[in-house]
Amino acid sequence: MSDPTPEEVIRLAQQRIAARTPAAPALPDEAPVERPWRWLFAGLFGVLLMALVFWPGAPLEWKLYAVVHGVCAQQHNIILGGAQFPICARNSGIYLSFLLTLAYLYTIGRGRAGGLPPWPLGVALLAFIAIMGVDGFNSLFVDLGQPHLYTPDNFFRTLTGMGLGISIGVMLLLVFNRVLRKDVDESQPVLKSWWELMGILVLNLLVVAAIYGNLGVLYWPLAFSAFFGITGVLYLISLLLTSLLMGYEGRVTHLSQLARPAAVAFFPTLLILGLMAWLRFWLEGQGVML
């Protein structure tokens, strides 16, 4: 009988460790204690949305702008149908693409996926980040009056931002599933093939065409999507941390089971948005240009 290979020894050790470590119990689907939290989550979201839309004294586009004023550089903004987007061209690209990517991945059945993309796709996602970084620094050098590679414009800011948005969407879904889900499928990559990546890119290009084709009828859907994209990233990070603090790690099989941490996560999200916006408005009132 031959001696086991190092790989077999490691695999056997992992199996023994897994056998000794009790798995975290899954959360019950219809725990009575969770149901009020689902109503509270829905109520909080509804109240916040109604307050945003119907609070008197300011146009809706300014309220969207004010809420994210502390967490977004609001220069080089997109003008669509004669109205200004609440966030800048680059961030519009990032967060519109983030929402599109999440929706696309769930649509193609990656809601439980926990595997890394194949390495060529991983390299492509890293390249998207690098390209946006180059364009961002190039724009910064222009703003500072320093030597730069090329003259930036909003079209390219939006396009390179969308590349980063794809990478953020893939990364956040991967982290969320691997940290919180009990039924995560680590054998299934979050992003599996070039065709799937092409699908995301086509959706992004359609949005770019709508923006720079000046389809004014799409202003509100796209402005709200960009707004909920940037606030959604902050909220998802708050949700992930809140869920960990409340003991949900490796226990979730249905998203509805996260109602309690989802309701609680509204509060740190609102606190960060409110404090950052207040601080920036205050600094601008003191003559500090950011």
What is the overall shape?
Answer: globular
State the order of secondary-structure elements, H for helix, E for strand: HHHEEHEHHEHHH
Gyration radius (Cα, Å) is: 22 Å
* Low-pLDDT stretches: none
Strand content: 5-15%
Distance between the termini: 71 Å
- In total, how many domains does the architecture comprise? 1
Strand order, main sheet: write it out. 1-2
Residue share in helices? 55-70%
Give an overview in words.
- It is a single chain.
- With 290 residues, this protein is mainly alpha-helical.
- It has one domain.
- It is 64% helix and 6% strand.
- The chain has 9 helices and 4 strands; from the N terminus they run αααββαβααβααα.
- It has helices at residues 6-20, 35-54, 60-67, 89-107, 119-143, 154-180, 194-212, 219-245, 259-285, and strands at 77-80, 83-88, 113-115, 185-189.
- It has a two-stranded antiparallel sheet.
- Strand 1 and strand 2 form a beta hairpin.
- Helix 2 runs parallel beside helix 9 and helix 8 crosses helix 9.
- The longest helix has 27 residues, at 154-180.
- It is globular.
- The model has no long low-confidence stretch (mean pLDDT 88).
Layout of helices and strands:
Layout: H1 6-20, H2 35-54, H3 60-67, E1 77-80, E2 83-88, H4 89-107, E3 113-115, H5 119-143, H6 154-180, E4 185-189, H7 194-212, H8 219-245, H9 259-285
Parallel strand pairs: 3-4
Antiparallel strand pairs: 1-2
